[in-house]
Design brief:
There is one protein chain. The protein has 310 residues and is α+β, with helices and mostly antiparallel strands. The protein is 41% helix and 19% strand. The chain is built from twelve helices and eleven strands. It has helices at 21-27, 61-67, 136-143, 158-172, 183-195, 208-219, 226-233, 237-248, 252-269, 275-281, 287-298, 302-309; strands at 2-7, 42-48, 56-60, 73-75, 78-85, 88-92, 95-99, 103-107, 112-116, 122-128, 150-152. Strands 1-2-4-9-6-7 form a six-stranded mixed β-sheet, with no helix packed on it. A five-stranded antiparallel β-sheet has the order 3-10-5-8-11. Helix 3 (136-143) crosses helix 5 (183-195), helix 6 crosses helix 7 (226-233) and helix 10 (275-281) packs across helix 11. The longest helix has 18 residues, at 252-269. The protein is globular and about 55 Å long. The protein starts with a strand and ends with a helix.
């Protein structure tokens, strides 16, 4: 089984988004050490120790309570939680959501989050690297950044989901399991398929929005104009805008601004970077330009927002 480890890392260590998938996989196989500048936000990572699948780990909320200190965290793996009983709260990317029995939680890799009021919660947490699912459909789910963080599991779906979870618990918790076995990943895929996590953005038949989303993820730190993405993807700006509107209800520009603001907030809170550093990270010419952009989008200067969010 893997051991969940909490690390306080330097700004350089927490820039997981710049690592390739191969580097991320290597990361979970190496012992991480504390390094450099200390901050108030903990980086969560895990690694295989002995037998068990190196891509999937399960733990209980009782174990989470032992490890959790209430601070804001950022993980380089997905967290999927299924709640059996109790009430609590979780904050994911600066939005606090209530938790109750027979609900599910999805915290995507890279999301800034904090568990709160979890003393009464009972259930299971599944930690897995983004490449752990083995089917095309469930890998697509793991790859998207548009999963609703919390939702209620329908009553008629609960028995099948609970059975799939119990199978995963048995296999992932088997101390004599073959470390090379893909069975935990297969069972994880079945669990994700049965849960069918709701999305905040609906896939488009043409795939245009999905291409735009992937291009934004690759280049938003450098390119802030929709025209660049339209040219890169070979679409007219109006065609791209219509596709984004069908998927999100908003414009392509609004989607790009929202992504920039989310990353800016993560850098301000997680990496504790000043506005000038965030501006450089996100491709703005200077701190004043970034501050104007942030204030226009949020109504609050970045320094004020950062202090209020810690």
């Amino acid at each position: 089984m893997m051991s969940l480890l909490f690390f306080t890392t330097s700004v350089a260590d927490t820039r997981f988004h710049r690592r390739s998938i191969a580097e991320r996989i290597r990361t979970i196989r190496l012992h991480l050490v504390e390094n450099g500048l200390m901050n108030d936000v903990r980086q969560l990572t895990y690694q295989p120790t002995g037998t068990g699948s190196p891509a999937v780990e399960v733990l209980t909320f009782e174990r989470l309570r032992q490890l959790n200190d209430g601070r804001t965290q950022r993980s380089d793996f997905h967290v999927l939680a299924i709640l059996d009983a109790g009430r609590g709260r979780v904050t994911v990317d600066f939005h606090t959501r209530p938790l109750a029995a027979r609900s599910a939680v999805w915290i995507a890799a890279g999301a800034v989050h904090r568990w709160g009021d979890i003393a009464e919660l009972a259930g299971t947490l599944v930690l897995f690297v983004p490449t752990a699912p083995v089917t095309h459909a469930t890998r697509e789910v793991a790859a998207t950044s548009h999963i609703t963080p919390t939702w209620t599991v329908p009553d008629d779906a609960w028995p099948s989901i609970d059975a799939a979870r119990q199978h995963l618990l048995l296999e992932a918790g088997n101390p004599i399991a073959d470390a090379s076995s893909e069975l935990p990943q297969i069972l994880l895929s079945a669990l994700i398929a049965l849960l069918d996590p709701p999305r905040t953005v609906q896939p488009t038949e043409s795939g245009t929005f999905e291409l735009f989303r992937a291009s934004v993820e690759a280049d938003f730190r450098v390119h802030h104009d929709v025209g660049y993405y339209a040219r890169t993807l070979g679409y007219a700006p109006r065609t791209l805008t219509r596709a984004v509107q069908r998927a999100t209800g908003g414009t392509a520009k609004a989607y790009l601004v929202e992504r920039l603001i989310l990353e800016a907030k993560r850098l301000l809170v997680h990496d504790r970077l000043p506005a000038a550093r965030v501006a450089a990270e996100l491709g703005f010419p200077d701190a004043s330009n970034f501050s104007l952009f942030f204030r226009t989008a949020t109504g609050t200067p970045p320094a004020t927002w950062s202090r209020a969010s810690r």
